[in-house]
Amino acid sequence: MQPRAYDNELTYLTHKQDDREEAFHQAYEEAVESVRADLGQSHPLKIDGEPVETDNTFTATSPGNLDLKIGEFAAGREQDVEAAVSAATTAASAWEDRNVESRVQIFQDAADTMRDRKFELAATLSLENGKNRTEAMADVDEAIDFLDFYSSELERADGYEFDTGEPTPGQHTTNLLRPYGVFGVISPFNFPMALFVGMSSGAMIAGNTVVAKPASTTPLTAHLFVDILHEAGLPEGVINLVTGGGSDVGQPIVEHEDVSGVAFTGSRDVGLRIQETFMDLGKRGPVIAELGGKNPVIVSDTADVDDAVEGVKNGAFSFSGQKCSATSRVYVHEDVIDEFTDKLVAETEDLTAGQATDRDTFVSPLIDDSAVEYYQEITEKARNDGTVHTGGNVRTNGDLADGRFVEPTVVTDIPHDHELAREEHFLPFVTVHPVSNLDEGIKKSNDSEYGLCAGLFSQDEAEIERWFDEVESGMTYVNRTQSATTGALVQAQPFGGWKFSGTTGKFAGGYWYLQQFMREQSRTRVE
Q1: Which of 290, 310, 463, 472 is the catalytic position?
Q2: Which residues participate directly in catalysis (predicted)?
Q3: 456 and 332 in contact (C-beta within 8 Å)?
Q4: Domain match, 458 and 318 both
Q5: Number of domains in the chain
């Protein structure tokens, strides 16, 4: 079997390199108008390949314009989860029995469809969760990457089945990985296409069937992907989409006796509760969870300060910090901290807030009202306990008043052990701290329950090598101006973390991810 060659899908970068940037913008803007005209429809659950209406519904609106209705979505309940798990259980055996070529072809066809529709998908994502056009396209690109890479990996490993020969005369042995059965997939709002696609396709390509619950703020992109899979030939019951709240849908999925494993991305508290539930119920399947970060960056006295400012600004404030990989705390050598802070503040104040679909927008809206309330809470603490150099206010001017916009915020004079410097906020909020040397920077970087992403700006090769060896983080970046801590690419930069940032130590988009959805079996036949 010859795997299809894998390359990252880099739509915006490719357009720029080919001097076709205007074509990118035109295609996106045309897609926005087309998508906007179709918003506001009703969307049922999708169970066993069929639409399922419910007594209750919920409305999703655009975070950048609360008057823009994304759609009306069926609110699932425990009985709907029961039906979805039943459908997934029924479909599991036949799906596992599919040969590798047949199974992979479905996901490769789905990836090709997404390529053809990528501007429509990116426009939908912008309107639904507030990402600007380049980040929305990157979200779609990553989803395509997951489909392509996982397909190529399953082909490369020939389905993870190995003929291990005759260990003793008269015995023939085979060793293989087999799916667990039914997986629950619970995805977040911030990468509504990439993470929904990545987790669910990882489970299905490995031979499992899926009951999926997207975030209630971003259900439309999940619907689009499920439709694409069915158009590509995915059998009924292999993926079942149940929209709704965490207590009504998410918890019943986790607790269901026929759900063997869960893939989850979200908060540490929720992820740990899922693990505890599995332990309490005696479940032996995996909880594959990515659980956030409090990502540090060190700026050495040998750093190019302008590069460090650019990288921290992009890492902290792109998508308004609503990424588990967002730059959250910066440890700057005391000899350059004043220069760094002044430049960071000036660069931050030049960032453009606006509707996600506007070409110049950098600062995105917050996803819901609770995020705005939390922003107000932590910025008030920052004023009381530290120094707010810029930001700290909700934006209410012009058309920003129609959405949930806040100011990117830079804070100093917060002690390293203060809650603002230790807890994940998921907001455009960064604290800057002085350190006297690299030793102190590494020690404070590692003094956290999280270990997702970390960055360093330094021109000293010895510092760089030492930092790589000593920093406690799953993903590490040096002198990266495009973003100090965010923007991992499938295969090249597998996404995951250490400590409380993840549960498995195997990263999404990496060579060991698919095996987590499978368990080993050896087969011995006496001839």
Answers
A1: 290
A2: 290
A3: no
A4: yes
A5: 2
